[in-house]
Structure formats: structure tokens, C-alpha cells
């Protein structure tokens, strides 16, 4: 319930700033997209913490660049009767951690 509300607020935030033409983040993915990925794939307390740290780093004192979110768990639900589209790729980092990378193609599988 809280997770869905936070994701909805992030969607509204992203649409609003897209409409007014404002937006320049030093990182890829943007801070709001990073937070969205965190809230979709991590527990709320970890997602809040990681998103907060990322927003603090998004300033002139840090170089920026590519900074994918991390997760400690893989939660891929496979259903036998249908093939689900891939939304995220999980790339191993080590120590049971995975980078979360969004899939932009229309591929099918899990």
C-alpha cells in the first residue's frame, strides 16, 4: 500500500517536471528513476536510505555518471502458464548483490 503510493507520487513528480521542461541530473538513471527502481525492488527502509543518499550526491561536488541501484535479492516470479516480459536485468556485483538495470526492449521471458 505504502509502496504503491510512493511509486504513484514518483510518477506524478516525473510527469510534472517533464511537462515544465526542467530536469538535469548528474547521474544516469536520474534520481527519480533511481528511487523508482529502489522502491520496486528493495524493502522500503533500504529504498528510502539509498534514494536519500543518491539525492545528497546529486550536486556539483560529485562527478556524476552511471550509478545503477543495487539489490540483495532476486524476486522474479515465474508463472507456468505465461511468459512475463523482462522489466529489469540483474547483473551480479558480488557478495549477493545485483545491479538493477532497466530493460528497454520488448523481449519476453523472466
What does this structure look like?
- This protein is of the alpha+beta class and 110 residues long.
- The chain is 39% helix and 17% strand.
- It is built from three helices and five strands.
- It has a three-stranded antiparallel beta sheet with strand order 3-5-4. A two-stranded parallel sheet has the order 1-2.
- Helix 2 runs antiparallel to helix 3.
- The model has no long low-confidence stretch (mean pLDDT 81).
How are helices and strands ordered from N to C? HEHHEEEE
Residue ranges: pLDDT <50 for 5 or more in a row?
A: none
- Structural class designation: alpha+beta
Q: Counting H and I runs of at least 4 residues, what is the number of helices?
A: 3
What characterizes the major β-sheet?
Answer: 3 strands, antiparallel
Mean pLDDT: 81
Principal-axis shape: globular
The radius of gyration over CA amounts to: 15 Å
Strand order of the largest sheet: 3-5-4
Distance between the termini: 25 Å
Keywords:
single chain, globular, 110 residues, 17% strand, 3 helices, alpha+beta, 5 strands, two-stranded parallel ribbon, three-stranded antiparallel beta sheet
Give a quick summary of the entry.
This protein is an alpha+beta fold and 110 residues long. The protein is built from 3 helices and 5 strands; from the N terminus they run αβααββββ.
Layout of secondary structure:
Elements: H1 2-19, E1 27-28, H2 31-41, H3 44-57, E2 65-66, E3 70-71, E4 88-94, E5 97-102
Parallel strand pairs: 1-2
Antiparallel strand pairs: 3-5, 4-5
Amino acid at each position: 500500500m505504502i509502496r504503491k503510493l510512493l511509486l504513484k507520487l514518483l510518477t506524478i513528480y516525473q510527469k510534472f517536471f517533464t511537462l515544465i521542461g526542467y530536469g538535469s541530473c548528474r547521474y544516469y538513471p536520474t534520481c527519480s528513476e533511481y528511487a523508482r527502481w529502489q522502491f520496486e525492488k528493495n524493502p522500503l527502509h533500504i529504498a528510502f536510505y539509498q534514494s536519500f543518499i543518491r539525492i545528497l550526491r546529486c550536486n556539483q561536488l560529485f562527478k556524476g555518471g552511471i550509478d545503477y541501484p543495487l539489490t540483495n535479492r532476486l524476486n522474479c516470479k515465474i508463472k507456468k502458464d505465461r511468459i512475463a516480459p523482462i522489466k529489469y536485468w540483474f547483473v551480479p556485483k558480488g557478495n549477493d548483490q545485483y545491479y538493477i538495470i532497466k530493460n528497454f526492449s520488448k523481449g519476453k521471458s523472466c
